[in-house]
Amino acid sequence: MKKVLFLSILLSAVFCLTSCGNDSDxxxxxxxxxxxxxxxxxxxxxxxxxxxxxxxxxIKKMDADQEMYGTHSIFRGxxxxxxxxxxxxxxxxxxxxxxxxxxxxxxxxxxxxxxxxSKATKNWRCIYKGHNNLLGE
Length: 137
Hints:
The chain has helices spanning 2-17, 53-64, 66-69, 114-120, and strands at residues 31-35, 39-43, 73-79, 82-88, 99-101, 122-129. By secondary structure, the chain is α+β, with helices and mostly antiparallel strands. The chain has a 6-stranded mixed beta sheet with strand order 1-2-6-3-4-5, covered by helices on one side.
């Protein structure tokens, strides 16, 4: 039990330190972040024209309450031919607590295999970042 708690806290701290930021090279116009679970992820915060209605409502809620959601980030990726959304919070005790299909349906990890999900998901993009940055960037 202590190992699980320690790993949860460690993963949360690592995610917190690697949430969306601008780590772009001077020679590139694309910004990237390095995430220990997702790997190198492009930052595409301005690309909201394809954001589903349910997610736009969630982003508005997050923007309105930065005290609660200021450290959250949202990633869009592709898995099994479908667009998925991963809402990351450094306070979550699991790695993929909040993953949704494009229609807003929560992915049930009691059924789905998170290891194969992690390996098979591609084209991650950071599409939202809360306004509170713990690193002070």
